[in-house]
Design goal:
The chain is α/β, with parallel strands linked by helices. The protein folds into 2 domains: 166 residues, Phosphoglycerate kinase, N-terminal domain (Rossmann fold), CATH 3.40.50.1260; 201 residues, Rossmann fold (3-Layer(aba) Sandwich). The chain is built from 15 helices and 19 strands. It is elongated and about 70 Å long. The two termini are 12 Å apart.
């Protein structure tokens, strides 16, 4: 995928204006950034253009304002942060299109940066409006996509605007790292390759399992994802989460059949679980085999046998991807399984394995233990990463290649 796509290294930006689509949709509290990973990963792209004596127009979204301008979703809070990081003043436009922003761009000098207001203040962005994309395209000479986290979206600034740049379009360093990291998972990494899928949403990950089952050595399935699989194999799961089971029952049976025919890949499920009689941190608990959860009880974490079983597989792996927690890790009494898995992945990484972690909950679990800097690569896009694992070319990447 990366072989035939241009990056910012293929351009000299001197006297050129680069429109750089970034993903600055970061968590904040009282206008203070809680996690700046996405921004930090995009700074090298911006610095490269500045170093070339080019001009930078930054486009980003923030939150879900649904086409309505709002102070709550304004990107103004980014000005001082970016200025501090880049060590230059940052110009700001409260509009994304129109004569006033065009005037700002025309007045930009080499090495200067203009940040546009939240692109999603315009409903045309999420509609994929071509006229809107054309107005944006007028602002620059070269288009750069460095927003992996939204490159699975068919939005104007992602898939439509590149049409107006012919061969003057490319990806940034963040996008390049994301693609290269995922390629290490999809059959090109050192074996054994292990993918750990957790969380509650099984429907978004079924096609991933079907697509990668022949490429990797181990699939570990935990969290809420495990219970539909256990049920389809005849297990009793009590009141455990069961997302859209009636819709996916046949698909799950097909996956189990496919798995049984595959000699190279093993699908592994938890052996035991910590169950609770209600959904709260102080609920009564006990540990039971995952195939025999009593009625009225629900699985909220993997048990000690499961932790040892999964950790042993992770310890032997040379390439590891993790997406989704193994239990309700927000509750301290049900976080041990997820934390144990995080520690096992860190230990394997320290011994030379390549580890890729994506998805907000998985990264949040790493941060709880201060492990985020001990992973080979933190993906900046959970949804986009999952789409890549389905072995589909993301719309935002396809738009650069075409």
């Amino acid at each position: 995928m990366i072989e035939n796509i241009k990056t910012v290294n293929d351009f000299n930006f001197k006297n050129k204006t680069a429109i750089v689509r970034v993903d600055f949709n970061v968590p904040i509290n009282n206008n203070l950034i809680i996690d700046d990973t996405r921004i930090q990963y995009s700074l090298p792209t911006i610095r490269k253009i500045i170093h070339d004596h080019g001009k930078v127009v930054l486009i980003s979204h923030f939150g879900r304002p649904k086409g309505i301008p709002s102070k709550i979703y304004s990107l103004r809070f980014m000005i001082s942060y970016l200025s501090h990081q880049l060590k230059i003043p940052i110009k700001f436009s409260e509009y994304c299109i129109g004569s006033s922003v065009e005037k700002y761009v025309n007045e930009l000098k080499n090495g200067e940066v203009l940040l546009l207001e939240n692109i999603r203040f315009h409903k045309e962005e999420e509609e994929g409006n071509e006229k809107f994309a054309f107005q944006l395209a007028k602002l620059g000479d070269i288009y750069v996509n460095d927003a992996f986290g939204v490159s699975h979206r068919f939005h104007s600034s992602i898939t439509i605007i590149p049409k107006f740049f012919k061969n003057k379009k490319c990806i940034g360093f963040l996008m390049k790292k994301e693609i290269q990291s995922l390629q290490k998972i999809l059959g090109k990494g050192k074996k054994p390759i292990t993918i750990l899928l957790g969380g509650a949403k099984i429907t978004s990950k079924i096609s991933i399992i079907k697509n990668i089952i022949h490429l990797i050595d181990n699939i570990l399935i935990g969290g809420g994802m495990a219970y539909p699989f256990i049920k389809v194999q005849g297990g009793k799961i009590g009141n455990s989460i069961l997302e859209k089971y009636n819709e996916i029952e046949k698909i799950l049976k097909n996956i189990i059949d496919l798995y049984q025919k595959q000699n190279q890949t093993n699908i592994h499920f938890p052996k035991d679980v910590v169950i609770a009689d209600s959904f709260n941190n102080k609920a009564n608990t006990k540990i039971v085999p995952i195939y025999s959860i009593p009625n009225g009880w629900k699985g909220l974490d993997i048990g000690p046998q499961s932790i040892k079983y999964f950790c042993d597989i992770i310890r032997k792996s040379k390439t590891i991807l993790w997406n989704g927690p193994l239990g309700v890790f927000e509750f301290s009494n049900f976080s041990f399984g997820t934390k144990s898995i995080a520690k096992a992945i860190v230990n394997s990484t320290e011994k030379g394995a390549f580890s890729l972690v994506g998805g907000g909950d998985s990264i949040a679990a790493l941060r709880m233990e201060n492990y985020e800097n001990k992973i080979s690569y933190l993906s900046t896009g959970g949804g986009a990463m999952l789409e890549c694992l389905k072995q589909t070319i993301l719309p935002g990447i396809k738009a650069i290649i075409e």
